[in-house]
Design a protein that fits this description.
Blueprint (H helix, E strand, L loop, with lengths): L1 H13 L3 H12 L6 H13 L1 H17 L3 H6 L9 H17 L3
Helix pairs in contact: 2-3, 2-4, 3-4
This protein binds zinc ion.
Length: about 100
C-alpha cells in the first residue's frame, strides 16, 4: 500500500495529467510563459496522450481562425464557404423565418 502511494506521489511530480496539460496548451497558445520544467512535462505528456494532442491541434486551429480579419476573409478564397445553392437558399429561408418569428 505504501509503495502504491509512493509511486502515485512520484508520478504526480514527474508527469502532468490531462487537466494540467490542457491548461498549459491554452497558456502556450496565448504565448504565456511556461517554466522550463513544466514545459518539459507538458511536452512529454503531449508526446504520448492522443486526447491532449487532439485538443492542442483543435485549439491551435480555433486560435488561427479567430485571428482572421474580415478583410482577409473577403480577399482569400481559401476561407470562402463552399455551399451549394440549395443549402444557401435554405439558410436564407431559415433566417427570414426567424426574423418574422422575432419581429426583426
Ligand atoms: Zn492527456
Amino acid at each position: 500500500m505504501k509503495i502504491k502511494k509512493t509511486m502515485i506521489s512520484w508520478m504526480d511530480r514527474v508527469i502532468l495529467d490531462c487537466k494540467q496539460t490542457t491548461f498549459y496548451t491554452v497558456k502556450e497558445i496565448d504565448h504565456g510563459k511556461i517554466p522550463w520544467l513544466k514545459k518539459l512535462k507538458y511536452k512529454t505528456h503531449l508526446s504520448y496522450c492522443s486526447h491532449c494532442k487532439k485538443f492542442y491541434k483543435q485549439t491551435k486551429k480555433i486560435d488561427a481562425v479567430l485571428k482572421i480579419t474580415p478583410e482577409e476573409l473577403e480577399k482569400n478564397n481559401r476561407y470562402q464557404l463552399k455551399l451549394n445553392t440549395k443549402t444557401k437558399e435554405n439558410i436564407v429561408k431559415q433566417i427570414k423565418k426567424n426574423q418574422n418569428y422575432y419581429n426583426l
